[in-house]
């Protein structure tokens, strides 16, 4: 997973996932504009394995995170980039700086499926568990990237057992996915959530807190 090679930065003139726009408007008498991107909404799933008493999350390489770290070390990397050329990254950083821990998640790009059906499909593809739609619990939805995309993510909770494991997970290689399934023991989860040396999404931190407030007390009574 960490064998990242032949890195080159080039302009993005078209994309299946991002569409840049500029909105011009007047607010309280003042003319303004704002640049933003349209992208897909998404679902994410907090998975708790009750057989192992652990959370199931995913770890993967995120180019955007990686390039933020590259720019931090080499501020000139995004300078003088025109639309006709691309530049190979010299002296690249190790791939580990772009690895993040995340909830199982996926974009909403199948209009014939419900959010719950899309979520169950992602759990199977990424983590290898077969979860019935009726076993999903909707936690909430929220806006992410409000200054840039404003997309909506819907968060679900799923309890799984070892017997529900139907595969290894890891995503779909034909779609370019390379995902590592990671188990976080319940007793270590809040330390993990606040450990800044382990890059993670806000969804991981929020969902772990939600679990400890809403699910953990019930487990202790069993």
Quick overview:
The chain is α+β, with helices and mostly antiparallel strands and 222 residues long. It contains 5 helices and 11 strands. Strands 4, 5, 7, 8, 9, 10 and 11 form a 7-stranded mixed beta sheet that branches. A two-stranded antiparallel ribbon has the order 1-6. It has a two-stranded antiparallel sheet with strand order 2-3.
Task: Explain what this protein looks like in three dimensions.
- By secondary structure, this protein is an alpha+beta fold.
- It has five helices and eleven strands, in the order E-E-E-E-E-H-E-E-E-H-E-E-E-H-H-H.
- The strands form three sheets. Strands 4, 5, 7, 8, 9, 10 and 11 form a seven-stranded mixed beta sheet that branches. It has a two-stranded antiparallel ribbon with strand order 1-6. Strands 2-3 form a two-stranded antiparallel ribbon.
- The termini are far apart.
- The gross shape turns out to be globular
The largest sheet is:
7 strands, mixed
Q: Distance between termini? A: 40 Å
Q: Count of DSSP E strands?
A: 11
Radius of gyration, in angstroms, nearest whole number: 20 Å
Q: What average pLDDT do the residues reach?
A: 91
Approximate strand percentage: 25-35%
In sequence order, what are the helices and strands, one letter per element?
EEEEEHEEEHEEEHHH
Oligomer: single chain
Contiguous low-pLDDT stretches (5 residues minimum) are: none
Number of helices: 5
- Percent in helix: 10-25%
Q: Quickly give the structural class.
A: alpha+beta
